[in-house]
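Researcher: First entry.
Model:
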Amino acid sequence: MALLTIACAAQAQRRFDAAVFAGANFNQLDGDDDGGFNHIGLRAGVGTSFSLTTAADSPLRLGVELAFSQKGSTISSSFERRATLSYVEIPVMLSLSLFDSRLRLSAGVAPALLVKASVIQGGSHNTAQERNYLRFDRLPLVLTARYLFTDHWALEARWQNSFLTVCEQSASGTYRIFRDNKGVFPRTVTLGIAYNLFNR
């Protein structure tokens, strides 16, 4: 009985993995009349993935994360404004493992709940702008590359782009997919590190 329990636990450990991660977001808001990934925020959380087949060494996996992520923009050209959007996001991604599972490439969506919007303009809060941000960012697309350089530690790079506006109203803005979808869209590059809780 003990041997069966150990065998089942070992199989589960190979099919499932878990990691904690942290990194820096380099952000901009497409449609806010400024460019450049000059707004830096924090991204940190936990994640797990599991094999999509019964084979423990299958290269295809489904991953789910729970993360705190700061997005936004900093404008310092025509006027000073710093917008920080703090989200709790749940990325769901399909992954492909390569090179003996050292490299994992992932793609998916990362729907997010806005927990706080802060807009500092002219040294004070612009409460009208803060209230203008939507509660949910429903369709951010995400691409990730994670390289495991030891049995536990990995480097990660991530690109994320929202395809639905995160503002209720936008005087200027840009658009995604179709012209009626006009507004402001977070775009983020993340560089970070992850620690696998189990051996690869």
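Researcher: Second entry.
Model:
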Amino acid sequence: MNKTMQELKSIWKRLGIKGQVRNYSSKAIWVIETDSGRPVAHLLAPMTKSPNGVDADAFRRVDGKPIQGHKSWWKIYDFSTAEIFDKGDDLKTSALTQTAVMDDEFGGPKSITYDRSENWGVSIQLVDNVQRNKKKRITKYHVTGVGWVDPKAALTMTCNGEIDNARPVFPGSGNPYIRTRRDRELSNNLEVKG
């Protein structure tokens, strides 16, 4: 690893920035972390994400099939959030930086401990509907697993990383609000809900 990357990793560690994997797919995946020193691969069920306090280092499919043409680990870095989606029978990923690596990146296949417990991840929470007033302004957000919340609570949850498909917006004038993350899908935007 070059000197610049080492310096960046040091800064990310001091700031507490951790890699995360969000599994939006219908397939279970392995997520490897090395926080305790020895590499541990945890089972991440569909529609769950790695816990906020864990620094996820890499992911791969449980069934051994490739993700984007690679059968072993996709390594991510401390600042990255890897999102995994279904693409037919295959999976696709969305990550700022990911590198295809083999088992020897983590000391070889015998060095990795596989934790098969099915409750390691945290449920992904999404804004899936909104309520509007007569002026078409959003008055409530429906969050999966939580229920209806007011705009202030939704903003707080978004800022704390508890809502996975929303981003906070702090305009120069006016009140802060949340919006869906930018992507090519239009049907998931808050503007078309409710």
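Model: Note on the second entry: The chain is about 10% helix and 35% strand.
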